[in-house]
Amino acid sequence: TNNRTGETAIGGDQTTTTGGIAYNGNVRLTAATLFTTPNGQNIAFNAGNVDGGNFNLNFAASTGTLLFGGTVFNAAQIQNLRTGNVTITGNQTTNGGLITHTGPVILAADTQFSAGAGAILFGSTIEGSGAARNLDIIGSGGVTFTSTVGTGSNFIARIQHLNTGALRIGGGQSTATAIGLIRHVGGGTLT
Q1: Are the CB atoms for 164 and 140 separated by under 8 Å?
Q2: pLDDT for 42-88, tens place per residue?
Q3: What is the pLDDT of residue 171?
Q4: What is the pLDDT of residue 174?
Q5: Which residue pairs from 92-95 have beta carbons closer than 8 angstroms and sit at least 24 positions apart in sequence?
Q6: How many helices (H) and strands (E) does the chain have?
Q7: Alpha-carbon distance 160 to 3, whole Å?
Q8: What does the alpha-carbon distance between residue 126 and residue 135 come to, in Å, rounded to a whole number?
Q9: Which 3-state string (H, E, C) describes 57-121?
Q10: Which residue would you say has higher pLDDT here, 189 or 118?
Q11: Burial profile 122-155: b = 16 or more Cβ within 10 angstroms, e = fewer
Q12: pLDDT, tens digit, for every residue of 79-104?
């Protein structure tokens, strides 16, 4: 755990063999970075934002959870291959690279994903936490939902697709009790 409240500069891969990884302040990448923990061990950006520095921000496959306590911006790409829950409390932006979240996504705040021409892929469920949440997507790349969005009390108030790329929807998004509004205005194909 990094208990510093100031900015932490990270210039390479971060790997643990027995425990988790946690940061309590802003993080800035100075090189492409892969975060790796053993199965069941978590990664947390508890407070502050992550400045990608126009480098790749990647997370290796693991069953551990991932927490973003602030925004992620200026990343070349965000690729999260972890199958544990990822909790997101701020917007996520890349400079034209992909955004991938393999495991279940929990929105703890209204969230905007913006990837320019990069593709956006949600490999599992998406749910709100604590209150109904808005999910906005902006860019020109394709967007894929492969599983259910919003379940029961874990409500998604709005999915707003402002992306000009294709929108591909998997299971469950048409459930009216789970999503208040689906707005597809980007002009791309809807499948």
Answers
A1: yes
A2: 999 998 999 999 999 999 999 999 999 999 999 999 999 999 999 99
A3: 58
A4: 41
A5: 92/68, 94/52, 94/118, 95/52, 95/54
A6: 0, 23
A7: 37
A8: 10
A9: EEECCCCCCEEECCCEEEECEEEECCCCCEEECCCEEECCCCEEECCCEEECCCEEEECCCCCEE
A10: 118
A11: bbbbbbbeeebbbbbbbbebbbbbeebbbbeebb
A12: 999 999 999 999 999 999 999 999 99
CA distance 135 to 171: 17
Largest CA distance in the chain: 47
How confident is the model at residue 176, as a pLDDT?
A: 40
Tokens linked to 115? 């990837």
Q: Is the pLDDT of residue 191 over 90?
A: no
Pick from 57, 69, 49: nearest CA to 95: 57
pTM (2 d.p.)? 0.90
> Nearest 10 degrees: CA dihedral of 58, 51, 43, 38?
30
Among the listed residues 41, 58, 1, the one whose alpha carbon sits nearest the alpha carbon of residue 25: 1
Question: Can you name the residues that pair with 118 across neighbouring β-strands?
Answer: none
